[in-house]
Amino acid sequence: MPLVAFPPGLLAVFDQFESWVTSDWAYAAIFAVSTIDAFFPLVPSETVVITGGVLAGAGDLTLPLVILAASCGAILGDNISYWLGHWLGERTVKRFFKSEKSRAGFAWAERQLDERGTYIIVVARFIPGGRTATTFASGYVRTFPYRRFIVADVIAGVIWGTYAACLGYFGGKTFEQQPWKGLLVAFAVALAVAGAVELVRHLRRVRTKT
């Protein structure tokens, strides 16, 4: 799963989201996008949560509410993914995700769940696409009980929501007069973290093969 490229519409997302901050829709948008991205990874949840954090740093939103909306949305979305995997089963899930990249992602998730269990639920939340494969796989492998999943997933969701929102918040505070600069810096840091996770994962895979 390669590192996600810097999204070309990032500033457009910021401008659009900024126009919502005068209403209560901002928190609903963070919640909804964080939920959908968990099982339909074409929606940029990190971008939206970081943007919410930037606007909180600029004084337009409240940071604890941004964290709450992002974390709850992430947890709900992961649970939807888990139960879809559980009810649909492995064959049906993989019928929807036919690409070679998706199949490689599921193979990786199944292997990691077997080797690392709870730990990988937390780590995968920071890997774009990896969280979707891992939560779906958790549901259909049948050897990963829901009680174990939900504990790990709540921890993962809260850490992820806090991380993304605070990243944007401190970027917004640093560039309070030009919050879009804070967004760019925060997103660059997020990409660096995702890249570090991917690098460690790659090195582990190479070490295992040797």
What is this structure's SSE topology?
Layout: H1 10-18, H2 25-39, H3 45-57, H4 63-96, H5 100-116, H6 118-124, H7 130-140, H8 146-174, H9 179-209
Helix pairs in contact: 1-3, 2-3, 2-4, 3-4, 3-8, 3-9, 4-7, 4-8, 5-6, 5-7, 6-7, 6-8, 8-9
**What do the pLDDT scores average to?**
76
* Secondary structure tally: strands: 0
How many individual helices? 9
Overall form: elongated
Order of helices and strands: HHHHHHHHH
Low-confidence stretches: 1-8
The Rg value, from CA coordinates, equals 17 Å
Which percent range fits the helix content?
A: over 70%
Note the gap between the termini.
21 Å
Strand content: under 5%
Main structural class = mainly alpha
| Largest sheet: number of strands, sense, barrel closure | none
Q: How many structural domains are formed by the residues?
A: 1
Features:
mainly alpha; disordered N terminus; single chain; 79% helix; 210 residues
Plain-language structure description:
It is a single chain. The chain starts with 9 loop residues before the first helix and ends with a helix. Helices cover 79% and strands 0% of the residues. The chain is elongated. It is mostly helical. The protein has one domain. The chain has helices spanning 10-18, 25-39, 45-57, 63-96, 100-116, 118-124, 130-140, 146-174, 179-209.
